[in-house]
């Protein structure tokens, strides 16, 4: 899906020469593979049951596009992993800069590459990531919604 800007991540990691693993599939896969250098791996569709392990093994989850609300960054944080995200849209609600990840400001390969290069995974606590993800837990959401509805009724 073009708005996810996977092309930006591929180009950034080509510049860095660092490994990038892309999970998922779609109509842009062939085009993205044609852009990819030797450090980029495409896994294709990954079963939902395998995602927690995949998140747990990454250094950071990369969110290169502007999504209204992306569940994947929350899932990565639930696995204790930080997020490197474009400073826009839903990421502003799901990532706490300096605590659960970092942002990059321009939707360019160079800006993302700089954020990846400068990011120190040791600066982010896995416990903080998990705690942040819990804000989006169904039970927590239901409790918050009920409390809000009681204030407006």
Task: Quickly list its features.
single chain; 153 residues; alpha/beta; Rossmann fold; 3-stranded parallel beta sheet; 8 helices; 5 strands; 46% helix
Quick structural gist:
This protein is an alpha/beta fold and about 150 residues long. Helices cover about 45% and strands about 15% of the residues.
- Helical coverage, percent range: 40-55%
Strand content: 5-15%
The number of E-state strands comes to 5
Spans of 5+ residues with little confidence (pLDDT < 50)?
A: none
CATH-defined architecture: 3-Layer(aba) Sandwich
**Bulk shape:** globular
What does this structure look like?
This protein is of the alpha/beta class. It has one domain (2-152): Rossmann fold, CATH 3.40.50.2000. The chain has helices at residues 6-16, 29-35, 51-56, 71-78, 91-94, 109-118, 126-134, 138-152; strands at residues 20-23, 40-44, 61-63, 83-86, 101-104. It has a three-stranded parallel beta sheet, sandwiched between helices.
How do the strands and helices of this protein lay out in sequence?
Elements: H1 6-16, E1 20-23, H2 29-35, E2 40-44, H3 51-56, E3 61-63, H4 71-78, E4 83-86, H5 91-94, E5 101-104, H6 109-118, H7 126-134, H8 138-152
Parallel strand pairs: 1-2, 3-4, 4-5
Helix pairs in contact: 1-6, 4-7
